Amino acid sequence: MTWSRHAMTYLALVVLAALTLLPFGLGLLTSFTSARQFNTDAPLSIPSPPTLANYLALAGVGFGRAAVVTALAAAVILLAQLTFSVFAAFAFARMDFPGRDALFWVYLATLMVPPTVTVVPLYLMLADVGLRNTFWALVLPFMFGSPYAIFLLREYFRAIPADLVRAARMDGAGTLDVIVHVVVPASRPILVTLALITVVTQWNAFMWPLVITSGRTWQVLTVATSSLQSRYDAQWTLVMAATTVAIVPLITVFVAFGRHIVGSIVVTGLK
């Protein structure tokens, strides 16, 4: 009975994985299909012959620049968020100051505020200082940490044995040395997990880039893909090629660092 139970479990997982991957496979096939074949053959038809015309056409509509802008914005936000979140989380986890816990819970309560509520105030503030339709308008609202990131790191930092921190301070380490040489190395799994979450979130951001930018200069991938649907009506082969280009970097990052997510969940002991 045990082997049959395992067989049924794996069969269910395979079926669910196939259902999940089917839309991505269909999009990939469509991206290599010519517009003529797509309009005449069945949707699940194998490209005959496969063509790169849809991918080559993306270069002519400014899609390459959108990919560069998206990657640069995600990289800047990632570095800034990790830096500020680590410092803030360490302060809330390991430093004593008046009102620490109250301030933390008030800050954490902002998670309940829908992001759409802050779009208009952020837009007005950045427009007033002349940053609308600039690169800094894309990244500034997300550079200084987030309640979720700080909460995640704070809980992880609190699990680090206090003896490690005390031993470092007895050796003459300052606060910055403790963070860099003790806390960060011990928190590598959760930092990688947070980095993946941040990259995926910023890579897929749509509303804020759509509101704060105009034209192609600072257009990101999500906005560029959306504009393709309106500018090239019914050319789904082109849209699927753009979607594939946007998804491949995320899949690559997840395959390369996905094991760290499991490592951050597993409870480990530190000596």
Automatic annotation (TrEMBL):
Principal location listed in the UniProt entry: membrane
Cellular compartments per GO CC: plasma membrane
Top-rank lineage group of the source organism: Bacteria
Family: Belongs to the binding-protein-dependent transport system permease family.
Gene Ontology terms describing biological process: transmembrane transport
Topology of this chain in the membrane: Multi-pass membrane protein
Transmembrane segments: 59-92, 104-123, 135-157, 178-200, 236-257
Record's subcellular location: Cell membrane
Organism in which the protein naturally occurs: Mycolicibacterium madagascariense
Protein name as annotated: ABC transporter permease
InterPro entries: MetI-like, MetI-like_sf
Pfam name, any one: BPD_transp_1
Annotated ABC transmembrane type-1 domain residues: 67-257
Keyword terms, alphabetized: Cell membrane, Membrane, Transmembrane, Transmembrane helix, Transport
